[in-house]
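seq/struct pair 1
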Amino acid sequence: MLSIVTLVRDRNAMLDRLLAGCARQRGGPCEVVVVRAGGSEDPSEVAARHPEVDVRTTTVPGTQGTIPYATARNHGAEVARGEVLAFCDADTIPSSGFVGAMTSALAAHDALATGEVRYLAPGAEATDDEAELLRRSAPHPDRDPVPASGVALGGRAELVWGLCMVLRRSTFVRLGGFDERFTGYAGEDTDLSTRADAAGLPVALVGGATVFHQHHDWFDPPVQQIRATVANATRYHETWGRWPMEGWLAAFAAMGLVDWEPGSDRCSVLRTPSPAEVEACRRTLAAPFLARTRPSGRVAAS
């Protein structure tokens, strides 16, 4: 069985669409483990709308509207019963072939797996028509191309992110799960992907296992999460000797928020962004991708 593990913090409307996607699955049994941040919206009412989906909800402490990503993902994995763990963000919608394709891929390959991630235009998430979701979405320009069907081995580990990261439970345990020294926002998934790569685990690009990313406001760079992002980037650099999320760090530096440059050994926050600077970085248009690539880390819409 495959377990989808998702984290939710005041995103019940998006969770509702994720569960609707789970209800449309064609291949094999699955369950959904919803890990909620304490103090946020209760997802149990949303789960009750989908009695055909095996949903289990659990809670981890949250502070000031945040969720401890690494701890929450590990907790979800502990609660899950499946032999395959699929970490999918609450703002994604799995395609109807997701469970079947991923289950088959992980039965054949001990790998770090991901499917195609397609970013939806505003309002497109309202439809249940998968053909319409495909028509009104775009693939990420910097991610490895995924085959239409079957499995291609050899993708880049640093581009397997927590919004769609799938592996065998036994492999997840062998790798040690997510490093809970990463707190708050970003980096814990890149660290696990890097550990998988260092352990010789191939990346599997799985055809037919598309996930659709629901449109929402985002920040470029994520100035509202600057301290957590810098702390986690520093933790990654201390472990691996290179910087993740370099595009974000460069953008912070250009704004005078951090002391950092490529090749440096440290990154420090110089000041907190003003409310006006935070709002200036908010993005709401249906233009999820920037022209530039962010090596070893995120692009703005993730």
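seq/struct pair 2
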Amino acid sequence: MQIYWTKINKIIEETPEVKTYLLDCPKDFTWEEGSHTHFALKGFNAGDKPNRSLVRHMSISSLPDEDAIGITTRIKEQCSEFKSILRNLEVGNEVAIFKTHSNIPLKRESKNVYLLSSGVGLATFRSLVLEYLKRADNINQIHSLNIDSSKAFLFTDIFKSAPEKNFSAQFVDNRKDYYEEVKNLAADKDGHFYIVGSDDFIVQNIEVLREQGITPEQIMLDKRENELSKFLIN
């Protein structure tokens, strides 16, 4: 396993609770849209065994051509040891990344794609949307639906409807409107539905989609193959 140590080169305050950490790209480090990585803080591998409290599984919100590895995360006032340390890091501090992989690259099968997310889960989809806007080959259209009760919606510069590019974005701040809209989107019996959020959020979305006749094969989750069976049971 290769561990890449790299430096924070910029910290963006997206909202009062959400920050994006832009990391320098180590030589030979590559990734594709929808990737996640293990993001670790200094000292995580200092002992005989890795200190798992200093490691988190994070989505990469940027694309390689942006020349930075973007890690977007919510840090609340009351937070874990990991988030507390992260909150106090500054530009120039070192962090580690390793075990990078994508479970949800864009499927280019000439179908409609629906991106369903909750809160900061939208960060996972940022790279998919950017990749689609660069190259829309074999995708009919993309629609993003995000729920965030805080109303502090993320990445509104990218997640804005562009009819000429067959891209639309929708934000809602309550569960009733959100799940009504999921039902409406599920009227497309041939689309691909990507879901990112907490496990409870994923389960609820799958229940709604399955009730509307969407099959497990049409549902994409940011989960390893050995985890998928917990969610997608025929």
